[in-house]
Amino acid sequence: MFEGLFKRSKGISIESKSQKKTALMIIAPQDFRDEECFETKEELEKAGVKVTIASLTRGEKKGKLGGAIMAERSIAEVKMEDYDAVIFIGGMGSKIYFKNPIALDIARQAFKTGKVVAAICISPIILANAGLLSEKRATVSEGPEAEKVFKEKGVIYTGKNVEVDGKIITGNGPKASREFGRKIAEMI
Fold it and tell me: Would you write out the chain's pLDDT as a tens digit for each of its 188 residues?
């Protein structure tokens, strides 16, 4: 009689010990880089990571190349304790987060609590503005704005496709998307 109950309980306890890893991916409301979003997400999901998409508001968001994806959360609704990593996706639209207090706070909270913090393309500027990259090795999509911010914030620019410094991962653009996603999955 109790044997079936014991087996079910045992299965539940085993499952709860190996809970799925989770990542929060923050995209711009428009003009995010499609490859950085979709290829990074695909690599994470292949590794068994559950990805939640967030943006300024909930709803469908359009990438620069026309791809569409649903944002399940607004950044104001994010509770960082629900995630093992936070990922900022690049593209020109991501400039909206460069000085956004909510986005900067999400990055700081994630870092402070030992989570993986990742950004690709021009979005490492968000991490620099949040104060997370001072004296850290990082990469970014090259350009005068990134160069200026990195210099002002004391970031050690490496120019690599993907750079890891502690639990901070940066990628330099669309061509690094898959490697970026695999590295995040490996670290969470």
Answer: 434 443 444 444 333 334 799 999 999 999 999 999 999 999 999 999 999 999 999 999 999 999 999 999 999 999 999 999 999 999 999 999 999 999 999 999 999 999 999 999 999 999 999 999 999 999 999 889 999 999 999 999 999 999 999 999 999 999 999 999 999 999 99
β-bridge pairing 116-120 and 73-74: unpaired
C-beta separation of 71 from 55 below 8 A: yes
Strands 50-55 and 22-26: parallel
What is the Cβ-side half-sphere exposure of residue 146, based on CA atoms within 13 angstroms?
Answer: 27
Rg (CA), the chain: 17
Domains for the chain: give ranges and CATH numbers: 21-187 (3.40.50.880)
pTM beyond 0.70, yes or no: yes
d(CA 31, CA 20) in angstroms, rounded, equals 30
Contact 125/143 with Cβ under 8 angstroms? no
Q: Give me the amino acid identity at 113.
A: T
Assign 117 to helix, strand or coil. Answer: strand
